[in-house]
Known about the structure:
By secondary structure, the chain is of the alpha/beta class. Helix content is 31%, strand content 18%. The protein is globular, with a radius of gyration of 27 Å. The termini are far apart. Residues 6-10 have low confidence and may be disordered. Magnesium ion binds at residues 74, 116-118, 145, 147-149, 156.
Amino acid sequence: MSTPLGMPSPARSGTAGVPTLPEGSTLTKKDFTSDQEVRWCPGCGDYAILAAVQGLLPELGLRRENIVFVSGIGCSSRFPYYLDTYGMHSIHGRAPAIATGLATAREDLSVWVITGDGDALSIGGNHLIHAMRRNVNLTILLFNNKIYGLTKGQYSPTSEVGAVTKSTPAGSVDAPFNPVSLAIGAEASFVARTIDSDRTHLTEVLRAAAAHRGTALVEIYQNCPIFNDGAFQLLKDRDEAKARIAHLRAGEPVRVGEDHVVVRDEHGRMVVLPEADADASRVVVHDPTEADPSTAFALSRLDDPTMQHVPMGIFRQVHRPTYDDLVREQVREAVEAGGTADRDPDEVLADLLRGRDSWTVDGTRAGSAEQSLEARTTEGPTAAAGDALQREGERALVE
Ligand SMILES: Cc1ncc(C[n+]2csc(CCOP(=O)(O)OP(=O)(O)O)c2C)c(N)n1
Ligand code: SF4
Ligand SMILES: [Mg+2]
Protein backbone atom coordinates (compact mmCIF):
# COMPACT_ATOMS: atom_id res chain seq x y z
CA MET A 1 0.00 0.00 0.00
CA SER A 2 3.00 2.28 -0.10
CA THR A 3 2.72 4.50 -3.11
CA PRO A 4 3.75 7.98 -4.11
CA LEU A 5 0.60 10.04 -4.10
CA GLY A 6 1.65 12.14 -7.07
CA MET A 7 0.31 15.38 -5.68
CA PRO A 8 0.97 18.76 -7.26
CA SER A 9 2.78 21.18 -4.99
CA PRO A 10 0.46 23.79 -3.48
CA ALA A 11 0.56 27.46 -4.39
CA ARG A 12 1.53 28.54 -0.86
CA SER A 13 2.67 26.03 1.72
CA GLY A 14 0.71 25.31 4.87
CA THR A 15 3.78 26.27 6.85
CA ALA A 16 4.57 29.52 5.00
CA GLY A 17 5.09 32.20 7.64
CA VAL A 18 6.32 29.72 10.25
CA PRO A 19 9.98 30.31 11.23
CA THR A 20 12.35 27.61 10.07
CA LEU A 21 15.46 26.27 11.80
CA PRO A 22 18.72 28.21 11.42
CA GLU A 23 20.69 27.32 8.31
CA GLY A 24 22.50 24.01 8.73
CA SER A 25 20.67 22.82 11.85
CA THR A 26 18.27 19.90 11.88
CA LEU A 27 16.12 18.11 14.42
CA THR A 28 15.52 14.40 14.85
CA LYS A 29 12.60 12.21 15.84
CA LYS A 30 14.11 12.13 19.33
CA ASP A 31 13.89 15.91 19.59
CA PHE A 32 10.14 15.62 19.12
CA THR A 33 9.75 12.90 21.76
CA SER A 34 8.74 14.23 25.17
CA ASP A 35 9.74 12.81 28.55
CA GLN A 36 6.14 11.83 29.35
CA GLU A 37 5.24 8.19 29.93
CA VAL A 38 2.97 7.03 27.11
CA ARG A 39 -0.26 5.82 28.66
CA TRP A 40 -1.97 3.94 25.82
CA CYS A 41 -2.79 0.24 26.06
CA PRO A 42 -0.27 -2.18 24.58
CA GLY A 43 -0.98 -2.68 20.87
CA CYS A 44 -3.01 0.52 20.49
CA GLY A 45 -2.86 1.97 16.97
CA ASP A 46 -2.11 5.39 18.47
CA TYR A 47 1.55 4.37 18.96
CA ALA A 48 2.08 3.93 15.23
CA ILE A 49 0.49 7.30 14.47
CA LEU A 50 2.64 9.00 17.11
CA ALA A 51 5.77 7.42 15.65
CA ALA A 52 4.82 8.54 12.14
CA VAL A 53 4.19 12.13 13.26
CA GLN A 54 7.43 12.25 15.28
CA GLY A 55 9.22 10.88 12.22
CA LEU A 56 7.71 13.49 9.89
CA LEU A 57 8.11 16.64 12.01
CA PRO A 58 11.91 16.96 11.58
CA GLU A 59 11.33 16.99 7.81
CA LEU A 60 9.29 20.17 8.04
CA GLY A 61 12.39 22.05 9.19
CA LEU A 62 10.39 24.17 11.63
CA ARG A 63 11.34 25.34 15.11
CA ARG A 64 9.72 23.24 17.81
CA GLU A 65 8.48 26.35 19.60
CA ASN A 66 6.48 27.27 16.50
CA ILE A 67 4.56 24.00 16.36
CA VAL A 68 1.45 23.37 18.43
CA PHE A 69 -0.80 20.34 18.76
CA VAL A 70 -4.29 21.00 20.11
CA SER A 71 -6.45 18.05 21.12
CA GLY A 72 -9.88 17.47 22.60
CA ILE A 73 -10.67 14.61 24.99
CA GLY A 74 -10.20 10.89 24.40
CA CYS A 75 -7.35 8.38 24.30
CA SER A 76 -6.20 9.90 21.00
CA SER A 77 -6.32 13.36 22.55
CA ARG A 78 -3.47 12.47 24.93
CA PHE A 79 -1.24 12.88 21.88
CA PRO A 80 0.17 16.37 22.66
CA TYR A 81 1.77 15.12 25.92
CA TYR A 82 4.05 12.84 23.98
CA LEU A 83 5.43 15.42 21.58
CA ASP A 84 8.11 17.89 22.54
CA THR A 85 6.30 20.84 20.97
CA TYR A 86 3.74 23.23 22.37
CA GLY A 87 0.41 21.54 22.96
CA MET A 88 -2.97 21.88 24.54
CA HIS A 89 -5.13 19.01 25.82
CA SER A 90 -8.26 21.10 25.63
CA ILE A 91 -12.02 20.62 25.97
CA HIS A 92 -14.12 17.79 24.55
CA GLY A 93 -14.90 18.55 20.92
CA ARG A 94 -13.52 22.08 21.01
CA ALA A 95 -10.03 21.62 19.63
CA PRO A 96 -10.98 23.07 16.20
CA ALA A 97 -12.34 26.23 17.87
CA ILE A 98 -9.22 26.75 19.98
CA ALA A 99 -6.98 25.96 17.03
CA THR A 100 -8.91 28.45 14.87
CA GLY A 101 -8.09 31.22 17.32
CA LEU A 102 -4.44 30.24 17.48
CA ALA A 103 -4.03 29.90 13.72
CA THR A 104 -5.67 33.29 13.20
CA ALA A 105 -3.78 35.18 15.88
CA ARG A 106 -0.42 33.53 15.21
CA GLU A 107 0.62 33.19 11.60
CA ASP A 108 4.00 32.00 12.87
CA LEU A 109 2.59 28.70 14.21
CA SER A 110 2.07 25.37 12.52
CA VAL A 111 -1.23 24.31 14.12
CA TRP A 112 -2.33 20.68 14.29
CA VAL A 113 -5.55 19.24 15.73
CA ILE A 114 -5.71 15.75 17.19
CA THR A 115 -9.17 14.31 17.64
CA GLY A 116 -11.09 11.03 17.80
CA ASP A 117 -14.28 9.84 16.13
CA GLY A 118 -16.23 10.67 19.29
CA ASP A 119 -14.49 13.96 19.99
CA ALA A 120 -14.69 15.21 16.39
CA LEU A 121 -18.03 13.84 15.28
CA SER A 122 -20.25 13.67 18.39
CA ILE A 123 -19.77 16.56 20.78
CA GLY A 124 -17.44 18.43 18.41
CA GLY A 125 -19.29 17.91 15.14
CA ASN A 126 -20.34 21.52 14.84
CA HIS A 127 -16.86 22.89 15.51
CA LEU A 128 -15.27 20.51 13.06
CA ILE A 129 -17.56 21.30 10.14
CA HIS A 130 -17.20 25.04 10.55
CA ALA A 131 -13.40 24.89 10.75
CA MET A 132 -13.48 23.02 7.43
CA ARG A 133 -16.04 25.36 5.89
CA ARG A 134 -13.94 28.36 6.88
CA ASN A 135 -10.79 26.70 5.57
CA VAL A 136 -8.69 27.60 8.59
CA ASN A 137 -5.04 26.71 8.06
CA LEU A 138 -5.02 23.57 10.26
CA THR A 139 -3.94 19.97 9.89
CA ILE A 140 -6.61 17.84 11.56
CA LEU A 141 -5.84 14.20 12.34
CA LEU A 142 -9.03 12.29 13.07
CA PHE A 143 -8.23 8.96 14.74
CA ASN A 144 -11.14 6.71 13.82
CA ASN A 145 -11.39 3.56 15.93
CA LYS A 146 -15.20 3.47 15.64
CA ILE A 147 -15.57 3.55 19.44
CA TYR A 148 -15.21 5.77 22.50
CA GLY A 149 -11.97 4.30 23.84
CA LEU A 150 -11.25 6.50 26.85
CA THR A 151 -14.67 6.01 28.42
CA LYS A 152 -14.38 2.24 27.95
CA GLY A 153 -16.26 1.27 24.87
CA GLN A 154 -19.44 3.14 23.98
CA TYR A 155 -20.52 3.34 20.33
CA SER A 156 -19.55 6.42 18.32
CA PRO A 157 -20.88 8.17 15.21
CA THR A 158 -18.68 5.91 13.07
CA SER A 159 -19.74 2.60 14.69
CA GLU A 160 -21.54 0.42 12.17
CA VAL A 161 -25.24 -0.49 12.43
CA GLY A 162 -25.53 -3.52 14.70
CA ALA A 163 -22.32 -2.74 16.64
CA VAL A 164 -22.66 -4.24 20.11
CA THR A 165 -20.97 -1.93 22.60
CA LYS A 166 -21.36 -0.94 26.26
CA SER A 167 -24.03 1.59 25.32
CA THR A 168 -25.67 -0.48 22.55
CA PRO A 169 -26.01 -3.95 24.11
CA ALA A 170 -28.67 -4.92 21.56
CA GLY A 171 -26.71 -3.49 18.63
CA SER A 172 -26.50 0.07 17.30
CA VAL A 173 -29.48 1.29 15.31
CA ASP A 174 -27.69 4.48 14.18
CA ALA A 175 -26.46 4.94 10.63
CA PRO A 176 -22.78 5.93 10.87
CA PHE A 177 -21.06 8.95 9.39
CA ASN A 178 -18.48 8.49 6.69
CA PRO A 179 -15.94 11.12 7.87
CA VAL A 180 -14.50 11.60 4.37
CA SER A 181 -17.96 12.26 2.86
CA LEU A 182 -18.75 14.59 5.75
CA ALA A 183 -15.53 16.57 5.24
CA ILE A 184 -16.10 16.90 1.50
CA GLY A 185 -19.68 18.02 2.16
CA ALA A 186 -18.38 20.60 4.63
CA GLU A 187 -16.15 22.09 1.88
CA ALA A 188 -12.81 20.91 3.30
CA SER A 189 -10.09 21.81 0.83
CA PHE A 190 -7.94 18.75 1.63
CA VAL A 191 -9.45 15.39 2.56
CA ALA A 192 -7.57 12.10 2.90
CA ARG A 193 -7.78 8.68 4.46
CA THR A 194 -4.99 6.42 5.64
CA ILE A 195 -4.41 3.66 8.21
CA ASP A 196 -2.23 3.22 11.30
CA SER A 197 -0.62 -0.01 10.07
CA ASP A 198 0.86 1.35 6.82
CA ARG A 199 3.62 3.66 7.99
CA THR A 200 4.72 4.67 4.50
CA HIS A 201 1.25 5.61 3.31
CA LEU A 202 0.46 7.35 6.60
CA THR A 203 3.64 9.43 6.37
CA GLU A 204 3.01 10.37 2.74
CA VAL A 205 -0.51 11.52 3.52
CA LEU A 206 0.67 13.47 6.59
CA ARG A 207 3.40 15.13 4.53
CA ALA A 208 0.91 16.29 1.91
CA ALA A 209 -1.53 17.43 4.62
CA ALA A 210 1.15 19.51 6.36
CA ALA A 211 2.07 21.13 3.06
CA HIS A 212 -1.54 22.10 2.34
CA ARG A 213 -2.63 25.65 3.10
CA GLY A 214 -6.14 25.49 4.50
CA THR A 215 -7.94 22.83 6.49
CA ALA A 216 -6.48 19.38 5.85
CA LEU A 217 -8.68 16.63 7.28
CA VAL A 218 -6.97 13.26 7.53
CA GLU A 219 -9.05 10.30 8.67
CA ILE A 220 -6.78 7.63 10.14
CA TYR A 221 -8.19 4.15 10.66
CA GLN A 222 -6.88 3.23 14.10
CA ASN A 223 -7.24 -0.06 15.88
CA CYS A 224 -8.40 -0.09 19.51
CA PRO A 225 -7.43 -3.62 20.60
CA ILE A 226 -9.25 -3.29 23.91
CA PHE A 227 -12.74 -2.10 22.97
CA ASN A 228 -13.05 -2.62 19.21
CA ASP A 229 -10.31 -4.96 18.18
CA GLY A 230 -10.08 -5.91 14.53
CA ALA A 231 -12.32 -3.09 13.25
CA PHE A 232 -9.97 -2.76 10.24
CA GLN A 233 -8.64 -6.32 10.19
CA LEU A 234 -9.79 -6.85 6.61
CA LEU A 235 -7.44 -4.06 5.54
CA LYS A 236 -4.52 -5.45 7.51
CA ASP A 237 -4.60 -8.89 5.92
CA ARG A 238 -2.36 -8.59 2.88
CA ASP A 239 -4.60 -10.46 0.41
CA GLU A 240 -7.84 -8.93 1.63
CA ALA A 241 -6.33 -5.45 1.52
CA LYS A 242 -5.11 -6.01 -2.02
CA ALA A 243 -8.60 -6.98 -3.16
CA ARG A 244 -10.47 -4.21 -1.34
CA ILE A 245 -8.37 -1.04 -1.29
CA ALA A 246 -8.80 1.50 -4.05
CA HIS A 247 -5.59 3.49 -4.10
CA LEU A 248 -6.20 7.07 -5.08
CA ARG A 249 -3.23 8.35 -7.06
CA ALA A 250 -3.43 11.64 -8.90
CA GLY A 251 -3.47 11.17 -12.68
CA GLU A 252 -4.04 7.41 -12.52
CA PRO A 253 -7.13 5.26 -13.11
CA VAL A 254 -8.84 4.28 -9.86
CA ARG A 255 -8.27 0.54 -9.41
CA VAL A 256 -9.66 -1.83 -6.83
CA GLY A 257 -7.40 -4.82 -6.36
CA GLU A 258 -5.46 -6.06 -9.36
CA ASP A 259 -8.18 -6.49 -11.95
CA HIS A 260 -11.07 -4.13 -11.13
CA VAL A 261 -11.50 -0.47 -12.01
CA VAL A 262 -13.93 2.28 -11.05
CA VAL A 263 -16.07 3.51 -13.96
CA ARG A 264 -18.90 5.98 -14.49
CA ASP A 265 -21.87 4.07 -15.90
CA GLU A 266 -24.28 5.54 -18.45
CA HIS A 267 -26.30 7.17 -15.62
CA GLY A 268 -23.19 8.87 -14.20
CA ARG A 269 -23.00 6.51 -11.21
CA MET A 270 -19.68 5.13 -10.03
CA VAL A 271 -19.40 1.37 -10.14
CA VAL A 272 -16.59 -1.14 -9.74
CA LEU A 273 -16.16 -3.52 -12.68
CA PRO A 274 -13.64 -6.10 -13.81
CA GLU A 275 -11.20 -4.22 -16.02
CA ALA A 276 -11.84 -6.65 -18.86
CA ASP A 277 -15.55 -5.65 -18.94
CA ALA A 278 -15.01 -1.90 -18.58
CA ASP A 279 -15.32 0.67 -21.35
CA ALA A 280 -11.87 2.31 -21.14
CA SER A 281 -13.34 5.76 -21.88
CA ARG A 282 -15.49 5.53 -18.73
CA VAL A 283 -12.73 4.59 -16.31
CA VAL A 284 -12.35 7.24 -13.58
CA VAL A 285 -8.95 8.92 -13.59
CA HIS A 286 -8.25 10.44 -10.21
CA ASP A 287 -7.93 14.22 -10.00
CA PRO A 288 -8.09 15.51 -6.42
CA THR A 289 -7.57 19.06 -7.67
CA GLU A 290 -10.90 19.12 -9.54
CA ALA A 291 -12.79 22.20 -8.35
CA ASP A 292 -16.17 20.44 -8.31
CA PRO A 293 -16.28 18.10 -5.27
CA SER A 294 -18.83 15.71 -6.84
CA THR A 295 -16.32 13.14 -8.08
CA ALA A 296 -14.39 13.11 -4.80
CA PHE A 297 -17.70 12.68 -2.96
CA ALA A 298 -18.79 9.84 -5.26
CA LEU A 299 -15.45 8.11 -4.63
CA SER A 300 -15.98 8.44 -0.89
CA ARG A 301 -19.36 6.68 -1.28
CA LEU A 302 -17.73 3.55 -2.75
CA ASP A 303 -16.92 2.73 0.83
CA ASP A 304 -19.43 0.88 2.99
CA PRO A 305 -19.36 -0.89 6.36
CA THR A 306 -18.67 -4.27 4.72
CA MET A 307 -15.40 -2.77 3.39
CA GLN A 308 -15.85 -4.34 0.02
CA HIS A 309 -14.19 -1.32 -1.59
CA VAL A 310 -12.18 1.10 0.52
CA PRO A 311 -10.71 4.16 -1.18
CA MET A 312 -7.47 5.29 0.48
CA GLY A 313 -5.32 8.33 -0.22
CA ILE A 314 -6.08 11.95 -1.03
CA PHE A 315 -9.65 12.49 -2.21
CA ARG A 316 -9.52 16.24 -2.52
CA GLN A 317 -6.82 18.88 -2.63
CA VAL A 318 -7.95 22.27 -3.85
CA HIS A 319 -6.85 25.77 -3.05
CA ARG A 320 -9.04 28.55 -1.81
CA PRO A 321 -8.37 31.47 0.53
CA THR A 322 -8.00 30.57 4.18
CA TYR A 323 -10.02 32.18 6.96
CA ASP A 324 -6.94 33.16 8.97
CA ASP A 325 -5.11 34.74 6.02
CA LEU A 326 -8.23 36.77 5.15
CA VAL A 327 -8.84 37.92 8.72
CA ARG A 328 -5.22 39.00 9.12
CA GLU A 329 -5.49 40.95 5.87
CA GLN A 330 -8.65 42.69 7.09
CA VAL A 331 -6.96 43.61 10.36
CA ARG A 332 -3.92 44.98 8.52
CA GLU A 333 -6.15 47.05 6.23
CA ALA A 334 -8.22 48.34 9.15
CA VAL A 335 -5.11 49.40 11.05
CA GLU A 336 -3.77 51.20 8.00
CA ALA A 337 -7.07 52.87 7.13
CA GLY A 338 -7.89 53.78 10.72
CA GLY A 339 -4.48 55.27 11.35
CA THR A 340 -4.60 53.73 14.82
CA ALA A 341 -0.93 52.78 14.90
CA ASP A 342 0.09 56.11 16.53
CA ARG A 343 -2.94 56.49 18.81
CA ASP A 344 -3.35 55.76 22.51
CA PRO A 345 -4.52 52.10 22.65
CA ASP A 346 -7.04 52.88 25.44
CA GLU A 347 -8.65 55.53 23.30
CA VAL A 348 -8.77 53.18 20.31
CA LEU A 349 -10.39 50.49 22.45
CA ALA A 350 -12.93 52.96 23.84
CA ASP A 351 -13.85 54.04 20.29
CA LEU A 352 -14.20 50.43 19.28
CA LEU A 353 -16.51 49.64 22.20
CA ARG A 354 -18.59 52.76 21.60
CA GLY A 355 -18.92 51.73 17.97
CA ARG A 356 -20.03 53.84 15.05
CA ASP A 357 -23.66 53.88 16.07
CA SER A 358 -24.39 54.69 19.72
CA TRP A 359 -26.88 56.61 21.85
CA THR A 360 -26.48 58.47 25.11
CA VAL A 361 -29.77 58.52 27.00
CA ASP A 362 -30.29 60.95 29.83
CA GLY A 363 -32.40 58.91 32.23
CA THR A 364 -33.43 61.95 34.31
CA ARG A 365 -35.37 63.61 31.50
CA ALA A 366 -37.85 61.47 29.60
CA GLY A 367 -37.32 61.65 25.86
CA SER A 368 -33.90 63.26 26.02
CA ALA A 369 -31.36 61.45 23.95
CA GLU A 370 -28.37 62.08 21.78
CA GLN A 371 -27.61 59.88 18.86
CA SER A 372 -24.14 59.40 17.43
CA LEU A 373 -24.16 57.80 14.02
CA GLU A 374 -21.01 57.11 12.02
CA ALA A 375 -19.16 59.31 14.51
CA ARG A 376 -21.46 62.33 13.74
CA THR A 377 -23.57 63.57 16.62
CA THR A 378 -27.08 64.45 15.52
CA GLU A 379 -30.50 64.97 17.01
CA GLY A 380 -31.75 61.41 16.58
CA PRO A 381 -35.20 59.88 16.35
CA THR A 382 -34.87 58.52 19.88
CA ALA A 383 -35.83 61.84 21.45
CA ALA A 384 -39.03 62.02 19.48
CA ALA A 385 -39.80 58.41 20.27
CA GLY A 386 -39.17 59.14 23.95
CA ASP A 387 -41.54 62.14 23.87
CA ALA A 388 -44.23 59.99 22.27
CA LEU A 389 -43.78 57.37 24.95
CA GLN A 390 -44.03 60.00 27.65
CA ARG A 391 -47.27 61.37 26.19
CA GLU A 392 -48.64 57.84 25.99
CA GLY A 393 -47.76 57.28 29.66
CA GLU A 394 -49.42 60.54 30.70
CA ARG A 395 -52.59 59.62 28.77
CA ALA A 396 -52.66 56.23 30.46
CA LEU A 397 -52.47 57.92 33.87
CA VAL A 398 -55.35 60.26 33.04
CA GLU A 399 -57.54 57.48 31.65
C1 LIG B 1 -18.36 17.35 28.15
C2 LIG B 1 -17.92 15.93 28.19
N1 LIG B 1 -18.77 14.97 27.84
C3 LIG B 1 -18.38 13.67 27.87
C4 LIG B 1 -17.12 13.34 28.27
C5 LIG B 1 -16.72 11.90 28.35
N2 LIG B 1 -15.84 11.49 27.27
C6 LIG B 1 -14.50 11.57 27.40
S1 LIG B 1 -13.69 11.01 26.04
C7 LIG B 1 -15.15 10.65 25.27
C8 LIG B 1 -15.20 10.04 23.89
C9 LIG B 1 -13.88 9.87 23.28
O1 LIG B 1 -14.00 9.13 22.10
P1 LIG B 1 -13.04 9.39 20.89
O2 LIG B 1 -13.03 10.82 20.53
O3 LIG B 1 -13.45 8.46 19.80
O4 LIG B 1 -11.60 9.07 21.46
P2 LIG B 1 -10.84 7.71 21.71
O5 LIG B 1 -10.82 7.54 23.19
O6 LIG B 1 -11.59 6.60 21.03
O7 LIG B 1 -9.48 7.94 21.14
C10 LIG B 1 -16.24 10.98 26.06
C11 LIG B 1 -17.65 10.79 25.67
C12 LIG B 1 -16.24 14.39 28.62
N3 LIG B 1 -14.98 14.14 28.97
N4 LIG B 1 -16.65 15.66 28.58
S1 SF4 C 1 -8.71 2.01 25.07
FE1 SF4 C 1 -8.31 1.58 22.92
S2 SF4 C 1 -7.91 3.59 21.99
FE2 SF4 C 1 -7.68 3.80 24.21
S3 SF4 C 1 -5.50 3.50 24.60
FE3 SF4 C 1 -6.52 1.53 24.90
S4 SF4 C 1 -6.35 0.52 22.93
FE4 SF4 C 1 -5.93 2.69 22.56
MG1 LIG D 1 -12.62 6.72 19.16
